[in-house]
Amino acid sequence: MSFILPRFTPYSRFHLLTNLTVILLLGASQLTAMDIEQKIDELVSKMTLEEKIGQTAMRGTSSRETGVSEELKQAVRNGEIGTFLNVMTPANVDALQRIAVEESRLGIPLIFARDVIHGFRTIFPIPLGIASTWNPEVAERGARISAEEAVNYGIRWTFAPMMDIARDPRWGRIAESFGEDPLLNSDMSVAMIKGFQTDDLSNPTAIAACAKHFVGYGAAEGGRDYNTALIPERELRDIYLKPFKASVDAGVATIMTAFNEIDGIPASGHKYLLKDVLRGKWGFDGFVVSDWASITEMIDHGYAADEKEAAYKSMRAGLNVEMMTEAYDNHLAELIEEGKIDEAWLDEMVKQVLRVKFRLGLFENPERLKGTESEILHPDHLAAAKEAAVQSVVMLKNDNYLLPLAKNKTVAVIGPLANAPHEQQGTWVFDSRKENSVTPITALREMLGEEQVNFAEGMSYSRSKSREGFSDAIEAAKNSDIVLFFGGEEAILSGEAHSRANLDLPGLQNELIDELANLGKPMVLVVQSGRPNTIHGILPKFDSVLYAFHLGTMAGPALADLLFGVESPSGRLPVSWPYAVGQIPVHYNHKNTGRPANDDDFVHMDDIPIHAWQSSLGNDSHYLDLGFRPAFPFGYGLTYSEFEYSDLELSSDTLKMGTSIRVSATIANDGDREATEVVQLYIRDLFGSATRPVRELKDYTRLTLEAGESQTVTFELHTDQLTFHNENMQEVTEPGDFHVWISPNAAEGLMGEFEVVE
Ligand code: NOJ
Q: Whose CA is nearest to atom 9 of ligand 1?
């Protein structure tokens, strides 16, 4: 059997998960794009300067507050506020919207925003886990369900997806990213945007998405949050901007600027990127929001002397809405009066905000609250969250097929993440309740019965430095056939402003693991974390390792099913894994250098003769103590079966510009159970007018095969997928020689060759 995967319709197999047709009939907008433009023009012509400035203002409460002051209500009545953040009671949303629509002069509705990042009440795996599924359908479904839950609270705008390329696991926000690859990031971002927005933003359960953070935030130097991002222009265009371009093409409604500067210019004042690239080249016609205080923070950056200059520079760049600070509010009128900003420019910016409000159907139907939570935590939502969690777990090791476990074994359940309902939800959850989390211990007891599970967590939280629980944990291990250690990080150790310099499992986890390992029992490590942790030192203590990024509400049942073989692991790493922090960045799509590392020349520092002559050893790009390979490559992951790759074939060894070739291989499930393989297509452009990465992911597919089954997977590869920015910074595909691989990960695979010809 064989099937062909054309890259240009990656989502054609998606299905919408709601009863959208019904919703369309009930609530979708009747306005055409032309009607909307006409209405916007009419409206802006009636607006006072103050009302226009009002549309650039976002106010809110902190996410823990529930009240809204009389002062804010009056400001809405006066038309001084356009959008709100974190108003979290339906009654307050209703009250404010009613004032805006019924009591303000022009009745312009508000938009209510919230960080709905990986779930609202039903929590899905953190985005890094979603990326590990290599399954955009899972991302879309999670976003759809999140939107369906959030609209019950009046939320029609989420600050997601975050599509910052993240190559540095020290950076706490790697948790919120889709990892290091531009294609995987683009696919996951587009899928989430579709899930949030549907095909028609005016559907009552659609919420506007926000592509963030434009741009380069993930390249924070040293992985320290908010730090300067150093990105060469070609890399910015070929890697960092890619997911944003894909999102604009997919119709994302809004964009958020980043906190960082890029080569001396803070993103929130970056005229070239915001105006020339985003609006000019890409034709984005929604609106741009700053990040929290990122306009006034340009003063701290040293890019604006005061609030007024900051307002001027962001306005000049075309940043429409200011989140939380009031530089626009305080200075735009003055800047217009002084002739520094043309009012016609403000009009343009206001139109972009109003366009999104019209597209959301808010003018026609501002009363959005359904007043019911019946759909929240619906069994279908929980089933989808469990499925997402199952697909996101990556098996890193399974010596002698210890996993899957037989259900007649007695297990010791140990570790700080075995029963941590809050932590398993991960970062960026504001609206869920930990009581709804199903933890591993709960799920395992349910699956095996109380008597087969000896539970002693040993440590009550991941950073604990107390040995108090060690003896109970060791006792539990002694009384069991197998030790399951649930380690990792608490949710608070990743996310915004939570970077770490040391990536080992925190607290005394490694010490507890050492003591357990001394018992000589079979050991399984299950890590739940917000980032890749450096676990290389403890790997030899375990027979099997399941790496789960924080899995959300249904972590427990998903892990229990994987451990006991109800499901087979199918997640694959969305990042290259470091042995040690000193090796970062270690991303797979690096350049070759003039002295590429290789196994033949590598001499470990322990093997260097004493008093060796300075240049007697291979002078290649490697570390004396770690070599040059990651601990696990990008795309890596094991399952309970073995897949064999054979018979790589290319439909031609020349690829004419503007056309495609087919690249195929046979994938066979050689094991004795059904399992899923993520088949990956990589290329290398051998020579260019600018150097190219050693590998680039160009396509992938999840393939489920029965035991003994084999299939031919065929990818279609078009020259448009081979573009990069050449020496003159033009995006082109250059003729020349290429390598192509069909692979299980970025470090292996069957290789072929082709030539691109004019
Ligand atoms: C700051 C974060 O950087 C951004 O991602 C988030 O959406 C806003 N705060 C609003 O909470």
A: 292
Would the CB of 496 count as within 6 Å of ligand 1? yes
DSSP string, 678-712: EEEEEEEE---SS--BS-EEEEEEEEEE-TT-EEE
Other C-beta atoms closer than 10 Å to the C-beta of 34 total 8
Distance of alpha carbon 171 from alpha carbon 695, whole angstroms: 24
pLDDT tens digits, one per residue of 40-67: 999 999 999 999 999 999 998 766 666 7
Residue 589: pLDDT over 50? yes
Has 168 been annotated as catalytic?
no
Q: Which element (helix H / strand E) includes 211?
A: strand 210-214
What's the Cα-to-Cα distance from 660 to each of 7, 186, 653, 695, 740, rounded to whole Å? 10, 21, 11, 19, 13
Q: Phi and psi at residue 683, in whole multiples of 5°?
A: -135, 165
Q: How far apart are CA 355 and CA 692, in angstroms?
A: 40
CATH class of 643-757: mainly beta
Our CA angle for 194, 568, 412, nearest 5°, is 115
485 CB near ligand 1 (under 6 Å): no
- Ligand 1 centre distance from Cα of residue 208 (Å): 15
- Domain 393-563 classification at class level: alpha beta
* Total-model pTM: 0.96
- Residues 6 or more apart whose Cβ sits within 8 Å of residue 685: 692, 696, 722, 724, 734, 736, 738
Report whether residue 159 contacts ligand 1, using a CB cutoff of 6 Å. Answer: yes
Q: For residue range 672-715, what is the model confidence (pLDDT) as tens digits?
A: 999 999 999 999 999 999 999 999 999 999 999 999 999 999 99
Q: Which of 126, 201, 139 is nearest to 10 (CA)?
A: 139
| Fold adopted by 111-359 | TIM Barrel (3.20.20)
How buried is residue 224: exposed, middle or buried, by Cβ count under 10 Å (0-12/13-18/19+)? middle
In the reported structure, the alpha carbon of residue 66 is separated from the centroid of ligand 1 by a whole-number distance in angstroms of 19
Check if the beta carbon of residue 491 is closer than 8 Å to that of residue 422.
yes
Distance 292 CA to ligand 1 centre (A): 6
CA atoms of 138 and 141, how far apart (whole Å): 5
* Ligand 1 near 115 CB (within 6 A): yes
Amino acid 368: pLDDT:
58
The domain ranges of the chain are 111-359, 393-563, 643-757
Q: What is the pLDDT of residue 23?
A: 35
CB 110 within 8 A of CB 83: yes
Cis before 744? omega within 30: no
What are 51's two structure tokens?
A: 């009302």
297 lines ligand 1 (CB under 6 A): no
Which residues fall within 8 angstroms of residue 442, CB to CB, at 6 or more apart? Answer: 419, 556
3 bridge partner residues: 713
User: Tell me: the pLDDT tens digits for 119-168?
Assistant: 999 999 999 999 999 999 999 999 999 999 999 999 999 999 999 999 99
Phi, psi of 439 (to 5 degrees): -90, 165
CA of 118 to the centre of ligand 1 (A): 14
Whether the link from the prior residue into 213 is cis, omega within 30° of 0, is: yes
Within its chain, how far is the Cα of 495 from the centroid? 12
Q: Which residue among 65, 126, 323 is best mutated to probe the pocket of ligand 1, counting the most ligand atoms within 8 A of its Cβ?
A: 323
Please indicate whether residue 217, judged by its CB atom, sits closer than 6 Å to ligand 1: no
Q: Which atom of ligand 1 is nearest to the CA of 212?
A: 5
Q: Give the tens place of pLDDT for each residue, 523-573.
A: 999 999 999 999 999 999 999 999 999 999 999 999 999 999 999 999 999
Q: How many CB atoms sit inside 10 A of residue 614's CB?
A: 6
How much of the chain is helix, strand and coil, in % rounded to 5?
A: 35, 20, 45
